[in-house]
Amino acid sequence: RARVLAVHHMFRNHAAHAIHLNDLYIVISSFVRPLTEEQILSKEEIYSIFINIEKLLPIHQKLVYALIQRK
Description:
The chain has helices at residues 2-12, 14-37, 43-50, 53-70. By secondary structure, it is mostly helical.
């Protein structure tokens, strides 16, 4: 029952997922990439702060696209 409610909530709130997608993009473009390119932090430090954020972006993009298609 709880799983069904969670999935239903996710489909109803696809706009919130789109906002979260934009937030991920902003964090990556404003922080992760500049910190990496300018070597302000080591790769280990960036990983410990942001973990797999760049891997989350395409996954979240697919999720939002799928939610919009099902609307």
